Fold:
Amino acid sequence: MPSPNIAGTQRGFVIPIGGAEEKLNNPLILQKFVSLAGDENAVISIIPTASQLDDTGQRYATIFKDLGAGSVHILPITERADAQKQQYVDILEKSTAIFVTGGNQLRLSTILGGTPIAKAIRQLNARGVHYAGTSAGAAIVSQHMITAGSTGIVPTEGGVSLAPGLGLINTAVIDQHFNQRNRLARLLSAVSYNPFLIGIGLDEDTAAFINENNEFTVVGSGAITIIDPSNIEYSSMAEANRGDALTLLNLKVHILAAGSRFDLNTLQAHIK
Structure:
């Protein structure tokens, strides 16, 4: 499940966002994140590593300040040496929330993976600091992170590429820009490897606000697709040749719009 609780503390929210979240007109997801972080008492650290645009961090800093955040810091981590710097860890240690921007999730994993920054993110979330990530920042939440894959509906052998993520969640695999980029096939391919994994497909401008009890509420204008393979009867992945369509029997699928809830422990979905 999300990063383990520490005795006497309550884990912070884990908030994967499907990308392209509304930033100007009724930015519901970002406003809720700022409120969780403490509004005028919020101390938000932004990690724009996934993006190669110079203004990404500053753009979010301006948005969070406009939404009422008390203090915002940008961590300009562009190479692994930056992720070793104690001054950046010290900034994270003083934060009430961490925000990881979109871009290329392999930049995140190759630059942050195994560094003091990655370790600090996990430890701080376990101690109550909230984590939100959009697009690439959402994908890396999973222990098993989707990096690429085929589009369409039908899953295939070789239809998805995976790499290690941050592991804030280790029983689910997350995909983003889900319906907008037709990514059902690659999420199905991911869960076909092992029915231990729950597939979570996030539409754009849609987020899962996962609380300390591993329950989440859907926030935003789109939907979240849940693929529950816990009662799967058969997957042909082991016998399939490269590129073959897969047979998957007895999958359960939920489509959850705003206000709907899902319990990652019991695998039960609930309406508003």
About this structure: The mean pLDDT is 96. The longest strand covers residues 144-149. Residues 14-259 form a domain with the Rossmann fold fold (CATH 3.40.50.880). Residues 101 and 213 are 25 Å apart (CA to CA).
